[in-house]
Amino acid sequence: MTLRVIAIDGPAASGKSSTASLVARRLGCAHLDSGALYRAITLAVLDNVGEPWSAERVVALAEDLPVRLVLVDDLFRPEVAGVDVAQAIRSERVTRRVSEIAAIPEVRHWVNVQQREAVQGHGRGVVVDGRDIGTVVFPDAPLKVFLTASPEERARRRLAERGGGGSGAADLRREAEVLAARDRADSTRAVAPLQAAADAVVLDTTRLSLEQQVQAVVALARARLPG
To answer: How far apart (Å, rounded) are the C-alpha atoms in residues 28 and 92?
Structure first.
């Protein structure tokens, strides 16, 4: 069976999840946000495991609670112990620690297995966004897109997501520094570093509206996906 996956990768606040969600809706596909699963595991660890934590303990916790993805209306929703955590995983305490958890090789392997299993059998296709979807998780995806934008634009978007408060130069500078640190952590980790796949379409969204970047990906998908 032909793999019907659109892989969308990129750094933090590049618009991956927003774009992937709308692309999936336009194409009648499901949407899987791999970052939500990493965040759900991080939330579970923070709530249930004291530091320092071992890789074995983290994976065992994810299996036992369980941490999982549940398909609801074409969206793979993160759950911990049967509870919808889609809002809870966006807290600042999770954001501060998720890169640390995501850098653990055993955790990345566990998450990759969950994603591959989730996609199996979804005949209409799945739009998956993350940081290593096109390079590691689905290297045979028929369409790989790498979204990027300037640090300043990504900082502006991230602040806007939080309600628009604090949009002065100092706030933008601080947020850009936070994103730069996240970029360094994701790009230099030993396992599955953030990078564009060799055959990915790199799309700079700095000067694109959300609608424009969605249209660009939808056009690529209609040209490249079979059927």
So the answer is: 32
Over the Cα atoms of the chain, what is R_g? 17
Distance CA 44, CA 38 (A): 10
Which of 138, 151, 146, 145 has its CA nearest to residue 184?
A: 151
Contact 7, 140 (CB under 8 A): no
Q: Around Cβ 77, how many Cβ atoms within 10 Å?
A: 17
Select from 71, 88, 69, 87 the least CA-distant residue to 79.
69
| 204 DSSP 8-state letter | E
pLDDT at position 167 is 64
pLDDT tens-place string over residues 95-111: 889 989 988 999 999 99
The total of other beta-carbon atoms located within 10 Å of residue 132's CB is: 24
pTM attached to this predicted model: 0.89
CA distance 10 to 14: 6
